[in-house]
Amino acid sequence: MIELSGVCLKAGEFSLENIEFTIQNGECYVIVGPTGSGKTLLLETIIGSKRHCRGKIMSENRDISALLPHERNFSYVPQDICLFPHMTVLENIMYALDIRKLSSSDDRAFAEKLTEFLNIGHLLSRYPKNLSGGEKQRAAIVRALAYRPALLVMDEPFSAIDAAMREETRRLIKRIHEEFKITSLMVTHDFDEAYFLGDAISVMIDGCIIQSGPSFDIYNYPKKSRVAAFLGVKNIFSGVVAAVGDKKVVVGWPGAGGAVNITCGCAQSKFRVGEKLSWGIRSEAVYILGHHYNNASEKPNSFEVIVRTLYTRGKMHTAIVETAGGAMLEIDIYEAAARKVGLAAGARIKISMDPDNIFILEN
Amino acid sequence: MSFVFEIRGIILAQFVTSAGVATRMIKSSLDEISPRYEMVARSLGATPFKSFMTVTFPLARKGILASAMITFAKCIGEFGATVTLAGSMPMKTETLPISIYLRLAGADIEGTVVFILILLTLGLAINMVSRSLGLVKYD
After folding, report:
1. What pLDDT is recorded for position A273?
2. Three-state secondary-structure class, residue A159
3. Using one digit for the tens of pLDDT, what is the confidence trace for B80-97?
4. B43 CB near a chain A CB, below 8 Å?
5. A278 phi and psi, to 5 degrees?
6. Can you tell me the distance from the alpha carbon of A133 to that of A186, in angstroms, rounded to the nearest whole number?
7. Is A101 on the interface with B (CB under 8 A)?
8. Inter-chain contact A86–B58, Cβ cutoff 8 Å?
9. Do B59 and A96 touch (CB under 8 A)?
10. Mutation for A interface: B36, B40, B57, B61, most A CBs within 10 A
């Protein structure tokens, strides 16, 4: 188990503030955040290349804050992969084993198993300059894992790979996690990658961790508007609490001339009638009801809207719709579904929002 | 230890005039190597010395060799400091530029041209070899 508590670091004008999270054994932990949020700096602090000024880094309940990088047992794969260019792939893979004098047949067998698993056996005699981006990435992962580190640290592992190879490499890394149960920490600016690979996620913005939790919760229930904005949530509105029920809040939505029901797992006492709050919903969580659906009133949070703009882009379409009160909503819908409901600019449609899919944002 | 009018004086004069240039060129060769290579080596278990010797130095080796050759070429052509410290004693402290100077002083134009051509050829050859070494890139 790797644990960071209250880690702070100053690097010129920029600083990391009170970084806290725990990585369980065998877990893939992902830190996601926009470019310039301090993700790489944090990784460099964890591997020991940068010294933090406060806080603790613990590995298996041992404080390793004062240890040098080569004493930490954390393996690092940087953004630009950095296979040693003057060594063959085999020499790169054997580097850690040779340096650490790990020469038992068991260690060699493990390196061979990794090589086989990542299908780079035919590349062992090649130099890195003769490898594709995906091959370099696979070789770097084998090199990093060959000596069985306590933590695999990866910085934007897919940034140097072309789009066609990216999905394949993602799936490969997922399979490595399942097969070898490695503990890993990865940073990325791409939430799709984070959601795909991460068992748990922390969202980092401006050197601070804003929200941490299981991938599903972060994606579906961002707690702060900055997190929601980073995750690409376009539908964020504010309203006044009209009623509070059992695990339910009714919020007035002047923009639609009505109110929305929101399910919340929190205590009733958390919200008061008359209190102002912000809420949001992901654009793919807004449902469009078909023409022949006449019982819209039975559906919670259903409204009639007009499609103002329709952006068609491959399998997903994006519709910008306007409610009766002038609020603008963004809806993502699959192309086939859009055709089925006759989605077109200027069309009058009915939409519905499941109370379970609406999240309340903290101020 | 005397340096004046001695071969030692040539060595000292050329060292003093070239050390700064050589250091700057070696530094730029090392600066070209991304520090992430060492970071990776350290994370794989290498000490700072080991990571320098196994990663940074081999990567900078060609640049360092090219720097040494250019510095050597600069030393071959060095005149001012050498003649000031070691003098211009024929067959004792006579470097190529001093030979040119002595032949020119004795109005030996053919001899002067021969030494100028030797110096020019040496300089060009060293420059070409060092450039070709410096142009070899791994990435």
Report:
1. 85
2. coil
3. 999 999 888 888 889 999
4. yes
5. -105, 145
6. 18
7. no
8. yes
9. no
10. B40
A-facing residues of B in 13-42 (CB < 8 A) are 34, 36-37, 39-42
CB contact under 8 A, A70 and B47: yes
Per-residue CA distances from A209 to A7, A176, A203, B88 (Å):
11, 27, 6, 72
Instruction: State how far the Cα of B79 lies from the Cα of B101, in Å rounded to an integer.
Output: 9
Please judge whether A129 and B138 are an interchain contact, meaning their C-beta atoms are less than 8 angstroms apart.
yes
- Report whether A176 contacts A182 (CB < 8 A): yes
Domains of chain A: 2-224 (3.40.50.300), 233-361 (2.40.50.100)
Q: Give A171 to chain B, closest Cα distance, Å.
A: 24
CA distance A162 to A135: 12
| Cβ atoms A303, A350 nearer than 8 A | yes
Gap between the Cα atoms of A356 and A247, Å rounded: 10
CB contacts, 8 Å: B62 with chain A: none
**For residue A156, which of A188, A134, A126 has the smallest C-alpha distance?**
A188
Q: Tokens for B100, please give them.
A: 């040119």
pLDDT digits (tens, 9 = 90+) for A330-360: 999 998 888 888 888 888 888 888 888 889 8
Position of tokens 């050498």? B82
In the block, residue with structure tokens 């990794």: A114
Domains delineated in chain B: 7-135 (1.10.3720.10)
* Residue B55 near chain A (CB below 8 Å): yes
A298 pLDDT above the threshold of 90: no
- Test the A interface: residue of B34, B37, B43, B57 with most A CBs within 10 Å: B43
- Would you call B128 an interface residue with chain A, using a CB distance cutoff of 8 Å? no
Q: Where are the alpha helices (DSSP H) in chain B?
A: 7-31, 35-43, 48-51, 57-76, 80-86, 96-105, 109-135
Q: Distance (Å, rounded) from C-alpha B118 to C-alpha A306?
A: 87
Maximum distance among all Cα pairs of chain B, rounded to whole angstroms: 67
Inspect the interface and report whether the beta carbons of B36 and A74 lie closer than 8 Å: no
The token duo for A16 is 């990391």
Q: Is the pLDDT of residue B68 over 50?
A: yes
* A165, A134 contact by CB (below 8 A): yes
Of B36, B47, B55, the CB nearest to A78: B36
Q: Mind listing the pLDDT tens digit for each residue in A173-204?
A: 899 988 888 999 999 999 889 999 999 999 99
